[in-house]
Amino acid sequence: xxxxxxxxxxxxxxxxxxxxxxxxxxxxxxxxxxxxxxxxxxxxxxxxxxxxxxxxxxxxxxxxxxxxxxxxxxxxxxxxxxxxxxxxxxxxxxxxxxxxxxxxxxxxxxxxxxxxxxxxxxxxxxxxxxxxxxxxxxxxxxxxxxxxxxxxxxxxxxxxxxxxxxxxxxxxxxxxxxxxxxxxxxxxxxxxxxxxxxxx
Length: 200
Ligand code: GRF
Hints:
By secondary structure, the chain is α/β, with parallel strands linked by helices. The protein contains 6 helices and 9 strands. The mean pLDDT is 97. 5-O-phosphono-beta-D-ribofuranosylamine binds next to α1 and β5.
């Protein structure tokens, strides 16, 4: 049986990438075929190299338009024919062309309980608003910022006023939930059908 192939897009540290590597590196059914970064110094590229995963740095600044940059991304991605494109801290907005091409095969993780706190600085917003709970969301990507049908959420009570500690706690949740969702999608237990999440 052909493995279910993942392509992972990153821009930074890549701790989620690492969690995915750790979960699937000895899995015969799920394979991480490539990692793409738009940042040269993204530590995730080193993580990919250390795990012998093909990895690429594609500088968005080398391209005149978003479309040209994305065409390059797509040409590399298509050489691997991924079954799922996983955004793991990828800090570029993707155009409708890209999103539509991978609709139902494109997921993202966001550090908040969406629809609360789209965008950046979610941990700070949680503290500023004295929220009782904070959490993470994995969702299929559609053409809305941090929108799209929700695959799974996980939450914790906010028991600290320390921003770094809160961020750390949220990262721990991410590292559990993201590989779990990927596993479910790869095993056909979760999919996007007519714009809605379907679980079987
Ligand atoms: C995570 O908090 C993720 O939710 C957000 O970007 C961050 C990436 O962290 N989309 P890392 O690079 O995986 O450590």
